[in-house]
Amino acid sequence: MTPAAAPDGPSASRPDSARARNERIAQAARRHHFDHAAPVPFLCECSDARCEELLRMTLQVYAGTRVSGYVVTPGHQVDGADVVRVRDGWWVYRGSGASPGQRRSCST
Questions:
Q1: Residue 102 DSSP class
Q2: Which one of 10, 38, 46, 72 has the minimum C-beta count within 10 Å?
Q3: pLDDT value of residue 67
């Protein structure tokens, strides 16, 4: 039996990989005592492997998006998922049962 791949390993989907990196960003911001009102830059968690867009939100808002799904730049997509929340600077997608391997890249 082989160990499972890390969430940001080579077999992870782009949204899952970006989400794992965002979790590390949030942990570092908390560790360095970022102001609660200060926006923190997070990575777009869309399906496009070439995406380098940043979203800015407070740690509290970011924590609230984790429950809902993937956070993306407006207009970006997470294949196999539906938009469940729309805000000025970001959208949240929730998966509809498609496995990460079935996701395609989105066009930006």
A1: G
A2: 10
A3: 82
